[in-house]
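Model it.
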Amino acid sequence: MSNTIIEIQSLSKKYKDTDFFSVNDLSLSVNKGEIFGLLGPNGAGKTTLISILCGLIKPTSGNFTINGLSYKNDIKAIQRIIGVVPQEYALYPTLTAYENLLYFGSMYGLKGKDLRQKINDSLDYLGLAKFADKKIDTFSGGMKRRVNLIAGLLHEPGVLFLDEPTVGVDVHSKNVIIDYLKQINSKGTTMIYTSHHLAEAQDLCSHIAIIDDGRILIQGTPEEIIEITHNAHSLEDVFLSLTGKELRDA
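Modeled.
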């Protein structure tokens, strides 16, 4: 029996009125239980690829399956078994942390004592229990990130998509988030993780693909791709060797 949980086959995306493909004939397999790092410079196609896999936008061509469910036939079923933690905060600023999580839990069909227990346990684990009844617009960036993470995990998804889950947070919040992700992964949740924090990715991810211009440049375990890249001693060395040193923040 195959251990593959995500199978991407020749996936491409070209947005209307553009001359290039954001995702270009990309094929990739992800095994169950992995933390799979999807790395690349700004504009490489990471967020577009995740948006396609979450069913938020349609590919121009190609196909993918998640847990044996085909995008072309089963996108609603796929969306029920995945969780998404977007880069932008997906929270209501005038509601409290607890109210936000009650709302997102109810969207997944959760209710009653079980939902309240999950919310309380998660807030406690991430150091937010005493702020449960405070409005989100009073929270720091790190606190919002942690609530954002809980919202994507309440329904215990089999696959979790994380788009820059630690961007803009302090060291303490980052460490709490990373520890929480490791704990969730240890229970069997597969994770697709994007980040610009390459040292973090090197420590966290079991496998990595570096993409640019919508194509995969290299993939493997962090150790493998460092070993096969000339003069590379870290994932950052590999990244710069493959994508160049030209600025990409325009």
